[in-house]
Design brief:
Radius of gyration: 22 Å
Strand content: 25-35%
CATH superfamily of the largest domain: Fructose-1,6-Bisphosphatase, subunit A, domain 1
Mean pLDDT: 83
CATH architecture of the largest domain: 2-Layer Sandwich
CATH topology of the largest domain: Fructose-1,6-Bisphosphatase, Chain A, domain 1
Enzyme class: hydrolase
GO cellular component, one term: cytosol
Protein name: fructose-bisphosphatase
Number of helices: 9
Structural class: alpha+beta
EC number: 3.1.3.11
Family: Belongs to the FBPase class 1 family.
Distance between the termini: 53 Å
Order of helices and strands: EEEHHHHEEEEHEEEEEHEHEHEEH
Number of strands: 16
Number of domains: 3
Low-confidence stretches: 1-53, 57-68, 121-130
Largest sheet: 8 strands, mixed
Length: 407
């Protein structure tokens, strides 16, 4: 297979490099009539198109060097990079990525404005606060897309979804259990705000195979986060990014729309030990617990353990807020009993820990909690280890009242 390689050497005497390159069949064409010549870089070139683009970057900073190669697809990465996922999990991921591509296309289509409307299943417009958390048609369609893909994989025994009241038993002999939120943030789809899919994967509990289907389906879905085999999310935004971990680091792959492949763009993500951003709905400030108000007031003034003043960045899309936090550090949070332990908190906490971060309910490590209900809700704090530790030190950070609005 023909490939094209670019080698770039960069030297910065006193600069800590942070390089993010992602090529999509690039073609650099410069025309004197349309470009200010004073701003043209000293070298311009045209690349031949090819089926696979091999992009290598090296950088030197104060004598140190680093090299990254963006040439692996998700399937190639799983097959050859020492992840030891096994054939069964590789097949399952091929179906998960297929479903995510279909959802990405659906979210980006001109028809999502209709599917994203806040309608109930009878088709009536919902105007009250009680409708805020109910499934939208887009949620239902996304759920069906994923369920269909999991059925066809032949590798999933049971699927538990935020959109279903009970788990769906699929195959008596399949090795895996999948828990998921098929489309987080769908109520904001009209405004083209980023949305996402969150998933976690467990091994089927073979020791309870003798139990009735309903009982074993629920028990398989209520496993502790410490038993996760893999987890991930797919961010549907300006780029479609699949971020995942198999217990040996967190990696992100960006969808190349020219080839339809997820390409490794963020190898072994490492969340900064401390950030300078907090992500929370500040409008609820007066409903927060006293400890959380003191924590936010302190870091905003630069009087916390980090001497710089923190900035607020809040998208109100869990996947998007967490993705930014994973890359830049800080803490993303919802202090009330709103997010689901099984479908959201456990998978994202697994990813955070594998990137060197933490997931907490404000007092306790998320992955150490034993779910007792499928739709169990709790506060969630995700982010840099030093930021989460400082937040926990304020003790009273969980919001226990919801005056004026409903979950």
């Amino acid at each position: 297979m023909q490939s094209t390689t670019i080698n770039i050497n960069l030297k910065f005497p006193n600069f800590q490099s942070r390089l993010h390159f992602y090529p999509q069949n690039p073609k650099f064409l410069l025309k004197k009539s349309t470009i200010n010549q004073s701003r043209i870089p000293p070298m311009a070139f045209t690349l031949p198109s090819s089926n696979k683009f091999n992009f290598k970057v090296s950088a030197e900073t104060d004598g140190s060097s680093a090299s990254v190669s963006f040439d692996d697809t998700l399937m190639e990465f799983l097959g050859k990079n020492g992840t030891n996922v096994g054939d069964d999990l590789l097949v399952l991921y091929s179906h998960i990525q297929y479903a995510s591509k279909k959802i990405a296309a659906l979210v980006a289509s001109p028809y999502n404005s209709v599917l994203g409307k806040n309608f109930n299943l009878a088709g009536d417009s919902a105007s009250s606060e009680t409708q805020r958390d109910k499934p939208k048609p887009l949620d239902i369609v996304s759920n069906e897309i994923i369920l269909s893909s999991l059925r066809h994989s032949g590798k999933v025994a049971v699927m538990a979804s935020e959109e279903d009241d009970a788990p769906v038993w699929i195959d008596d002999n399949a090795p895996f259990v999948v828990v998921l939120d098929p489309l987080d943030g769908s109520r904001n789809i009209d405004a083209s705000i980023p949305t996402g899919t969150i998933f976690g994967i467990y091994r089927r509990l073979e020791e309870i195979d003798h139990l009735p289907v309903k009982e074993k389906a629920e028990l398989n879905s209520l496993q502790s986060g410490t038993k996760l085999v893999a987890a991930g999310y797919v961010l549907y935004s300006s780029a479609t990014i699949l971020c995942t971990s198999f217990g040996s680091g967190t990696f992100a792959f960006t969808l190349d729309h020219t080839t339809g492949e997820f390409i490794l763009t963020h190898p072994k993500i490492s969340i900064p030990p401390r950030g300078q951003i907090y992500s929370v709905n500040d409008a609820r400030y007066f409903d927060w617990a006293e400890g959380l108000r003191r924590y936010i007031d302190t870091i905003r003034q630069g009087k916390g353990k980090h001497p710089k003043k923190y900035s607020a960045r809040y998208i109100c899309s869990l996947v998007a807020d967490f993705h930014r936090t994973l890359l830049y550090g800080g803490v993303a949070m919802n202090p009330r009993d709103h997010l689901r332990l099984v479908y959201e908190a456990n998978p994202l906490s697994f990813l955070a820990e594998q990137a060197g971060g933490r997931g907490s309910d404000g007092h306790t490590r998320i992955l150490s909690l034993q779910p007792n209900m499928l739709h169990q809700r709790l506060p969630l704090f995700l982010g840099s280890p030093e930021d989460v530790e400082e937040l926990e030190s304020y003790k009273d950070v969980q919001q226990r009242v919801n005056p004026g609005y409903e979950v």
